[in-house]
Amino acid sequence: MITLTISSASKPPSFARGLPLSLECAEDSTVADVKALITARFPKFHVSRQRLNLKGERGSLNDEKTIGEVFGADAKVRELQVKDLGPQISWRTVFLVEYAGPLVIHPLIYHLPRLWYGQDVQHSALQKYVYAFVLLHFVKRELETIFVHRFSHGTMPLLNIFKNSAHYHLLSGLALAYDVYRPKFSATSPYIVNTIRNDQNFLRLCAGLWAFAELSNLHTHLTLRALRPANTRTRGIPFGYGFTYLSSPNYFFETVAWVVICVMTGSVAAWVFTVVAAVQMALWALKKHKNYKREFGKAYPRGRRAILPFIL
């Protein structure tokens, strides 16, 4: 058994005034085990609220690391600092709430046009296609959240759910639905009548491209799931469809799907949402690409880009 000192990285929360404290644990105990011991001393200090790091260092410790790996055999001082991350909520819950917004908002605006526009709207084929695309996209995202995705981090700060949800509820929900289902895009509008936006061949081509992008996105998510055993943070190098050229082909295919809707409609709201989403996904992809290269070194394929083949 070894003795660990646990101090506070900042002002300790009211329910953990007993910090610093000493804990007895085995050398093969994990960081997750140490968090559980802290919770045993302070029951309100749930493990999801804790971030442990070496004293004087900012990087958080991986829950799966053992104390022996953290300090080494010759360490004379074994001290960890704990930081309270505040109230947490599971990532799975956050995703479900985010994607539920458009699934509620789009039907309300599509089926109740008089409430929003003060008149009935005879929906065009274009509007019907977009309505189906949006609902299918977010139903797919909900099902993936429940059955496919495995999260490396179990929780996030509770307040972030409002920021994250605003992106989907306001941009791809309220703004997109209000813009695309309005009379301008209706079956009798000059913007639609006798234009390519009312051409069935054009709409079917767009539907085919959209379905290709969505199914490709699903395929990459299934590939990533297969790399990570349940209840672990194990990471591996993904190969196969989409990953030959990109570290994050899932983001690339999702962007393609939304660009299809933008081209179909010419909607300003659709373009705003797509650009904002694409920029955010590009930032995530670049960060993931950098992490892959740092973690796997020379084993990681050199020719890959982050999100755009041969470019970015």
Automatic annotation (TrEMBL):
Keyword vocabulary terms for this entry: Lipid biosynthesis, Lipid metabolism, Membrane, Oxidoreductase, Transmembrane, Transmembrane helix
Domain annotation 3-oxo-5-alpha-steroid 4-dehydrogenase C-terminal: ranges: 155-312
Cited Pfam families: Steroid_dh
Any one GO cellular component localisation term in the record: membrane
Membrane topology: Multi-pass membrane protein
Keyword Oxidoreductase: yes
GO biological process assignments: very long-chain fatty acid biosynthetic process
Record GO terms (molecular function): oxidoreductase activity, acting on the CH-CH group of donors
Top-level taxon of the source organism: Eukaryota
Transmembrane segments: 256-286
Compartments reported by the entry: Membrane
Family: Belongs to the steroid 5-alpha reductase family.
Name by which UniProt lists this protein: 3-oxo-5-alpha-steroid 4-dehydrogenase C-terminal domain-containing protein
